[in-house]
Amino acid sequence: MKLRVLGCSGGIGGRHLRTTSLLIDNDILVDAGTGVGDVSLAELTLIDHIFVTHSHLDHVCSIPFLVDTVGGMRNKPLTVYAVEPTLEIMRNHLFNWSIWPDFTQIPTPNKPWMQYRAVQLGETVEITGRKITPLPANHAVPAVGYQADSGRASLVFTGDTTTNDPLWKIVNQIANLRYLIIETAFCNREQDLAIASKHLSPGLLAEELAKLERSADVFITHLKPGEIELTMQEIEECAGQYKPRMLQNNQVFEF
Q: Which domain holds residue 53?
């Protein structure tokens, strides 16, 4: 499997700041933030599957544009996977005809450009030998992370989350774990905000990584613009033994 980072920022503000989106091979997206907008039209037509961690705008904002742009160029609907509460939010508040057309009904209900598929925690979806499994997350709305397993190795993406004991119980059982991408949205002086919005700060991150019992390369995502350097410095100071690195746009993982 090959994963390319299309976006990993907690905000916007320049060509290097794009919100969360990860492209697996050519056909699977994990989240669809603003980073999808940098992908060529030809590449967009190849995307068949979108696995959504949660319904917040920075993770789903490109789905409406993607479907609208390439729907007529495809011979099958684009499938959006998420837990049922997330799909319900998207039905009611995004693809609701008021914010955007419901592409599960057009151009016709029998041949729509988009379809939903509900998944459950621990339920593995296999796509041509690649396994995608929803993992527990603890966020302000219903949310999951995902494990991507090639058979040779696994990458875990936590999605947006705060303190999350159930996640580590599962992650510590992944024998072929190679990469862990975990969020840290706020610096330590904003830890109260991190707790209130169910994100992590460097101090909270260190407590979470102390629960990790397997070796993995750790990368930090969802850093807030304007606080990137400070937050990474604080992470180095309090979680340095794990040597987390900042996730970068266009970074590629092969596993």
A: 2-254
